[in-house]
Design a protein that fits this description.
By secondary structure, the protein is mostly helical. Helices cover 36% and strands 0% of the residues. It starts with 25 loop residues before the first helix and ends in a 5-residue tail after the last helix.
Length: 89
């Protein structure tokens, strides 16, 4: 039997409270019927994606989720930003 997984990474959704949202975070203010249904139907858990000693940014966490060993491959955010802007390295 093949087990399938969906990883939903709502980067920034649990950000700081926003005055324009009545002091709520974007996630607290969001209407999320599709996410609610996925949670109802699936299994939910927590995982540490940022190794000790690394800043908990989306770059480090995403690399880890994609299977990269951050302690070996992470050199900073700049190469990721450069590739996103189609800058040759």
């Amino acid at each position: 039997m093949i087990t399938k997984y969906a990883i939903i990474l709502a980067d920034g959704a649990a950000d700081e409270p926003v005055d324009a949202l009545g002091g709520q975070t974007p996630l607290e203010a969001a209407v999320t019927p599709n996410i609610d249904e996925l949670v109802r139907m699936g299994r939910i858990g927590a995982v540490r994606t940022v190794p000790e000693g690394y800043s908990p940014g989306s770059d480090v966490a995403t690399m880890s989720l994609l299977g990269y060993d951050v302690t070996k491959h992470y050199t900073g955010r700049a190469p990721i930003e450069a590739v996103a802007r189609k800058i040759e390295l």
